[in-house]
Amino acid sequence: MIQITNLTKTYGAGNKTVHALNGVDLQINSGMFGLLGPNGAGKTTFMRILAGIVNPSGGSIRVDGHDLTTEVGKHAVKSMLGYLPQELGMYTELSAEQFVDYMAILKGLDDSKKRNKRVSEVLEMVGLHDVAKRKIKGFSGGMKRRVGIAQALVNDPKILIVDEPTAGLDPEERIRFRNLLVNLAADRVVLLSTHIVEDIGQTCRDLAVLAKGRILFRGSPADMLQATEGHVWTLTMSGLEKPNHDLTVVSMLHLAEGTQYRLVGASAESYPSAQLTQPGLEDAYVWLMKQEPER
Amino acid sequence: MKRFSLKYTLLTYRLDQLWFPLAFWAFFVILTLLLSNEEQDFNIARAYIGVAVPLIGGFMAAYAILDDPAIELRFATPIRAAQILFERTILIFIIQTVSALAFIVFALLSGVDFAPLGNALNLHLAWIVPTLTMIALGTFGAILGAQTMIGSFLVGLVWIIEVIIRDGMAVNNWKYAYIFMGILAPEHPDLIGNQVALFALSATFLFFTWLLLHKQERYI
Description:
By secondary structure, chain A is an alpha/beta fold. Chain A has helices at residues 43-50, 71-79, 96-106, 112-125, 141-153, 171-184, 197-203, 221-226, 281-291; strands at 2-11, 18-28, 31-36, 58-63, 66-67, 81-84, 159-163, 189-194, 206-211, 214-219, 232-237, 248-255, 258-264, 275-276. A 6-stranded mixed sheet of chain A has the order 6-7-8-3-9-10, with helices on both faces.
């Protein structure tokens, strides 16, 4: 569905050049695809390129056979696209229904009967049907995000791009949002970009980790966990002593016998009492990031 | 597919872009009523339609495209750059047209004689041409600099320079870039050439704005 080859994006010139993306190769098929990475990794640039808003500096991208580096290709891709940007700007004086209706018109849904039906359907889908007539300015952050996803879905897109959709949402809203995305991924490509590891682990069978504009990992969450086996320990230490030796503390817990640390690193042989433990996705992410500077 | 809705274009239009020209209109109306004098009234009327209306149009145009909260969502839809440009500037031109025409009607009812500006066509070209030029300049400046402030600064700068050195603008080749010739020097022998040149300049500004609008990443 999406074929990306040697994608690069640079900003600025001379010694102020920033390489936002540096030789990204990816193939993305139907279903939910997660793009994980720290802030500043190049995720938003990548998503904006796929949405046809940002032009790549090099490489090729084909989406459903259309070349996204040409104006004709961009126009074709935008017609089959749903996009929820990280910074979601809306016309807050409009009601949820009006806003989604307006976006539907901009996306080319001209038949007013069909459009009204579709607007109603997507608002129902995101659980906003009851407040459809209310102005967006009175909505909570989570509700605004749901309006955002409703507008993204209104043209029944083949590809849905959502950039950091759960940032700033409370736990209940996050769960609700994740479940909604998984449901939507049943019959389309859903591209989820986030720096929240948990969001990916709960939703994606396929993921890529991006850091400093490069793909560090490509595979399933299970593959990522497997790659981290043998690099996660728990260690309990008393007093003021803290673990070092190039080990990253992923979490710590104060117990009666001391502080229990969860550690990620190449080796914990300096601590004989360290217990090897099963890695979680967060550990796997930290392990990948630890290896990144060596590349 | 039309991908256009007048209803939502109006509903999403910023109200301050309506109050701003309305406030200027009201100010000039009050000024005319206070200074009830035939010659003064003519000067006030031409200052409004030929000098103030273009300035207001230029300022509003600088904000027309980039001052859109949903610009990233809009860019992700398959709307053509030409449509964005047209949709956003035409409304400003319409508002300025209504303002100018309403003032002309008010001025005529107040007894102002527009004869010094020539026939009806000349009268209307005297405000249409500079308004179009300033709208095109404001839009182009904002898009070129990817900032609304740059567009409004450019409009303000050109306006103030041309108002201050208006006599100098009427001579040499500068006369073709003299935005206010139709209203301040209506008997100039090169008026038609000036208006054709300004129209071409506006078209050029709008063409380059359209070209630049394809680089959507500059504006998000």
